[in-house]
Amino acid sequence: MRLALFVGDDLHSHILAHRLAAEAVGAGVSLHVYLPARRSSRRVAEGSFAEYQALEIDLLEREIYPALFRRVWTSGVRLAPLAFEALHGIHAEPVEDINEPAFLERLGAAHHDLAISVRCLQKFGREIIAIHRRDHDLPRLWNLHPGRLPAFRGVCCFFRQLAGADLAGRYTLHVVDPGWDTGPVILRDAGVLQPGRSVLSNYCRAAPAGARMILDAVGRFRRGDLPPPSRQDHARAAYWSTPTAEEIAAAATLGVRLADRAEVAEDVKALLGVEIGRRAEPG
């Protein structure tokens, strides 16, 4: 089974991808990782949310991957592709634009059996969706969405769930269609978020379950016993954008923290085996 994995540039996505890669061969999955560039500036947001985004991304680039290779971080050098090759023997390919014609041509020629997005922040256009359709068969481009659909579409949905004490359901695996998080649902994760830990820690701690969910879905697809996708109830949908400073402050009064560096250091050590500094960051 040839699986293409489109992986975002955040800590959660890379933890999930490495956990999946470690188990892929044993599950009969040949994995090819694509690393799409972030299309908009990660620092558009201000205040606490900008700090949260920077922490999640910069930990990977400046601390975690350099620690894996025992080297000092160098600006402009991407270690993620090297890590997938060195740790798992898997090719990881940076992609500037997933909808660019030359990339689409190469993607089509690769003949992947399935493609799954894990927090890819580029929107999949109609052409790339069409590449993964096989006549009347189940569409073969899926998205692992962190959040319970359709109530939590959009971004930073774990923050919304924690702020609303709505903890059930960490992931929804769904078919990619031209909308944002609107495609039919394939599988749902029954796990719950942990209200005593920060948003970023919840993302990290959920990642192994997300990897297992993907492997389970791929295995069931291969055996032909995956249930038919179910249409989302769009009347019950809510789409969430990045939280405002006011929303973050209101959530903080309920004990919801965006990130805590010391806490995430524990998660990174447990999940990736990497020691990073434990200095606390503003939550």
UniProtKB/TrEMBL annotation:
SUPFAM superfamilies hit by this protein: Formyltransferase
Record-linked Gene3D superfamilies: 3.40.50.12230
Keyword Ion transport: no
UniProt keyword Transferase present: yes
One Pfam family per UniProt: Formyl_trans_N
Molecular-function annotations in GO: transferase activity
Domain Formyl transferase N-terminal: 100-212
InterPro entries hit by this protein: Formyl_transf_N, Formyl_transf_N_sf
Recorded superkingdom: Bacteria
UniProt keyword list: Transferase
Name of the protein described by the UniProt record: Formyl transferase
Lineage: Bacteria, Pseudomonadati, Pseudomonadota, Alphaproteobacteria, Rhodobacterales
